[in-house]
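Priority: medium. Attachment 1 of 2:
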């Protein structure tokens, strides 16, 4: 899944930019500039989606951007951790089972899937590969829907 969501920006009566995501209503921020709003929304999306994941809820698939919406990615490390959690859930693999596959302690796996822990990306990639998944990284300009 691509962790890039369409974001709607509106300016409120005080001149602040309010950013919302219809796919993830829990992600809501306001900021003084468009750039700040989009940057903060990437973080807010990560926090909201991590909450979904920790609660065992399915992550919402990003919808297609509508006119005048911006596409905002979740921070790469958080997206990788969400991908690992989702793959583990899909394949019904426990932390203990993944730890055995990787020949590490269960605590290492807990840190790999913890969005608040600064894991190394190569560890997450190795865990994904061990359960038959992969990770694709791409760069692109941030865009507003046409």
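Attachment 2 of 2:
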């Amino acid at each position: 899944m691509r962790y890039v969501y369409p974001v709607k920006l509106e300016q409120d009566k005080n001149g602040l930019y309010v950013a919302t995501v219809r796919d993830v209503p829990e992600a809501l921020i306001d900021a003084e500039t468009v750039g700040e709003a989009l940057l903060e929304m990437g973080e807010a999306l990560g926090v909201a989606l991590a909450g979904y994941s920790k609660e065992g809820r399915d992550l919402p698939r990003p919808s297609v951007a509508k006119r005048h919406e911006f596409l905002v990615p979740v921070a790469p490390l958080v997206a990788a951790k969400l991908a690992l959690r989702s793959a583990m859930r899909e394949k019904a693999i426990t932390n203990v089972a993944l730890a055995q596959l990787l020949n590490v302690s269960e605590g290492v796996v807990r840190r790999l899937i913890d969005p608040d822990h600064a894991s190394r990306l190569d560890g997450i990639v190795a865990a994904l590969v061990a359960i038959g998944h992969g990770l694709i990284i791409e760069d692109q300009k941030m865009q507003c829907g046409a």
